[in-house]
Specification:
Layout: H1 2-15, H2 19-54, H3 58-71, H4 73-82, H5 88-107, E1 133-134, E2 141-142, H6 162-170
Antiparallel strand pairs: 1-2
């Protein structure tokens, strides 16, 4: 009998809320519900767009989106932990750039002995052939076939290659 009295007293408390306050509470609850539904929908849309950009396989992108739709906030946290750190385009560009850099570095070879040389070498370390020479005016490195310095526009004096000078000195 005390339980029914307790339940009856709770009913009295609930029914004793003023009508204006009940409307305000109902309005707050409906706004919070609408906010949470919009947040849930926006997280699903964001996950789908992000997964399409980061994950090349469409099936995995769909699975990530369903995970967020079902698990909601824990699904978003799980997706953020498991998603690739870079977009698929950035991954492709990184691999492409590394390949182009390797190809560029492999092209820099001595014209005399075809050994690899760096772009800042003045001479080939293997055969001594001149790779570049400094400009007499601005000291920037010039290719041997240039007749004018492109940096300071001064004509470059014709010089003998260092390898020819070395050969004459040794003879």
């Amino acid at each position: 009998m005390s339980v029914s009295i307790l339940a009856a007293s709770e009913l009295v408390v609930v029914s004793s809320i003023p009508a204006g306050l009940a409307k305000v509470l109902a309005l707050i609850i409906s706004y919070c519900t609408a906010f949470l539904v919009l947040l849930w929908a926006s997280l699903i849309i964001w996950t789908w767009r992000d997964a399409r950009v980061r994950i090349p396989q469409r099936d995995w992108a769909i699975l990530a989106t369903v995970l967020v739709a079902v698990l909601w906030l824990p699904g978003v946290v799980l997706y953020l932990i498991l998603r690739p750190p870079e977009t698929a385009v950035n991954q492709y560009l990184k691999v492409f750039e590394a390949g182009m850099l390797n190809e560029y570095e492999s092209r820099l070879r001595c014209p005399a002995c075809h050994q690899p040389v760096r772009s800042d070498f003045l001479l080939c370390p293997c055969c001594g052939a001149q790779q570049r020479r400094p400009c007499a005016n601005c000291s920037r490195l010039l290719l041997p076939q240039w007749r004018h310095c492109p940096y300071c526009a001064v004509p470059v004096a014709a010089r003998e290659p260092v390898s020819a000078v070395a050969k004459r000195a040794s003879a």
